[in-house]
Every structure is written in C-alpha cells, then in structure tokens.
Design brief:
The chain is an alpha+beta fold and about 300 residues long. About 45% of the residues lie in helices and about 10% in strands. Bound molecules: glutamic acid. Glutamic acid binds next to loops.
Length: about 300
C-alpha cells in the first residue's frame, strides 16, 4: 500500500474543504493558533512512518492526555478504579454537570472531564510526583525526552476553569474526590497543556496498538488486558457525544482533544494522528474527522 500517496490525496481533499469549524476560544492561548494548521502522520507496524503537512509541529494535546492518565491509574488501582468511575458512553457534552448529579458523583467514563478529573485525583493520592511521573511515562512511550507541558496554556485555562472546578466540587460533595480541588485542577490542566506533534502522538499510541509492548525494544511495558480495556473505552467514549458517529464513519478506537488533535489506532496494524484546530459543534476537529474517514475508506483498514 502506498501510504504516502494516500496521505497526499487526503491532504489535497482537506485543503479543498471549506471549513465551518471554530477553534476553542474558551482557552485563550489556543485561540491564537492559526486556523489553517494541518498535519497528519501514519505509523505502520510493518513499514514505518509517513507524514504530510504540519505533522512535526507540536500542539496542545488537551483531552488526548486523558488516555495517558487512565493508563497510569489502571496500573495503580487495577479493577478497583472502576468502583469510582464507569465505562459507559456519556451521550453528553464533555464538560456536562447534569449527568454527574443524578449519577451520584460517579463519572460516566474516564474520557469526559469529570472522569479525567477523578483520574487526576487518583494519581495525586498514589504518586509522589504525579506531574513528573505522567510526563516520564509519555516521554518513555514516545521515546522523546523533550516533551513538556506549556504553562502559558495551563495558566490561560486556569482563569476559565469554573466548570471543571464545579465538576470537582460536585464529585467531592459525593465523597468521590479525596484531594484539594486546586491540586486536582492543577494536575489536570498540566496534563491537558502537554504539547506533542502528530508524529509523537502516533509513536506514543503505538504501545496501545502493539499489545502494551514498546515497539523499539519489544519490552512488555503495559498489561495487555488493560490495553484491551483502554482501547475499548477509546472506541466507545473517545469522542465526547460523537463517539457513535466517529465509530460509524471511521471505525477505529481513538481520542480527540480541543487543541484540534485526533489520534486513532488499528491494533496490530498502525497508529495515526491528525491535527487541524477548527472544531465541529461537538468539539472534535472537523477536518480531522474527515481525514480519518478518508484514511480508513481509501485503505480499507478499519477494525470492522
Ligand atoms: N482542557 C480542556 C477542558 O477541560 C480539555 C477538553 C478537551 O480537550 O476535550 O475543557
């Protein structure tokens, strides 16, 4: 398969697409990113790396970081984690408070904001230096030790975090948050502000496509049964209240973020990441969704 040619064709299709999406302005630093950035990377287990456009430029990974947090928390608590958090699609916006109220402070899944905030709480309770350990984990699976969190982005979000703080207060009122609200919010905003390129995301997610093994060394880093579960949660909950639509159009497990990034995996075959900042009304990259739909249609390589 000529992946480079396929990428070039997808790129041409996207460039000809008149976007109606909007960048996430509620994080002022993100609103400064040029609308027109567009990059895509494919990492095939058998044949290596292919990329196009701005695939090597770092951007704010935002909610994609929720996959990394979940991975660490599962490693710490195992199945006990799921006493405090569910694994059902929410069918609600990522920062919704309503469901949390009538479900007694138990987040629907780890990939909505309430769930990721709860995971941050678990990491604080169990790790000596959660920021450092989370970053080290990401650097290790990416094999890149220069990855950092952008404090300008996290500070800019901090000033507009009333809704995330509300989610935390509500969960704490049900006894499901154990640490001070400010500490949990601080770790959560730190992880959202981590910056990676499409190439780095595709590389990091190879551990999820490769049964928990690092591809370079073949080291079994993560428990394969956790990988199975994390991939299942990506499939059912990775795209806010558009998870069904993404499954229907693309047919891969994945995760998006309001920085305009989407990463998706085909276990045993490839990983891919795409970046285009304008978001559709559900908060997913508008062109990113089209790019991945084009990819699985043109290659015939989806999990279904
Ligand atoms: N930091 C963002 C927030 O909490 C992440 C949202 C996202 O990427 O879905 O609103």
């Amino acid at each position: 398969m000529d992946y480079q040619k396929i990428l070039e064709n997808i790129y041409a299709t996207l460039k000809g697409h008149k976007s109606t999406g909007k960048v996430a302005t509620y994080i002022p630093e993100l609103a400064k990113i040029p609308f027109s950035k567009l990059g895509m990377h494919i990492y095939c287990i058998n044949s290596g790396h292919y990329h196009i456009g701005d695939a090597n430029e770092r951007f704010s990974i935002q909610s994609i970081s929720k996959v990394f947090g979940l991975t660490l928390a599962m490693g710490i608590l195992g199945d006990d984690l799921f006493k405090r958090i569910d694994v059902e699609p929410s069918g609600n916006p990522f920062n919704s408070l309503i469901q949390l109220e009538y479900e007694n402070g138990i987040p629907r899944n780890p990939f909505i904001n309430a769930g990721a905030l709860l995971i941050a709480d678990v990491l604080i309770s169990n790790l000596k230096n959660p920021k450092k350990e989370l970053l080290e984990f990401i650097r290790n699976i990416t094999n890149d030790y220069t990855i950092i969190s952008n404090s300008q982005v996290s500070n800019s979000e901090k000033e507009h975090s009333h809704r995330n703080a509300s989610l935390l207060h509500l969960m704490k009122s049900f006894g499901n948050i154990k640490n001070p609200i400010e500490d949990v919010l601080d770790l959560y905003l730190f992880q959202c502000a981590i910056e990676m390129s499409c190439k780095e995301l595709a590389t990091a997610f190879m551990v999820y496509a490769n049964e928990g093994k690092l591809i370079n060394t073949n080291q079994q880093l993560l428990n394969p049964s956790y990988i199975k579960r994390i991939n299942a949660i990506m499939q059912t909950c990775g795209f806010y209240d558009e998870a069904g639509e993404f499954s229907f159009r693309v047919g891969l497990p994945g995760k998006s973020g309001v920085g305009g990034g989407i990463v998706a995996i085909h276990p045993g075959v490839y990983t891919t990441a795409v970046w285009s900042p304008p978001l559709n009304p559900k908060g997913n990259s508008e062109l990113g969704m089209i790019a991945l739909e084009e990819l699985t249609s043109r290659t015939g390589l989806s999990i279904f």
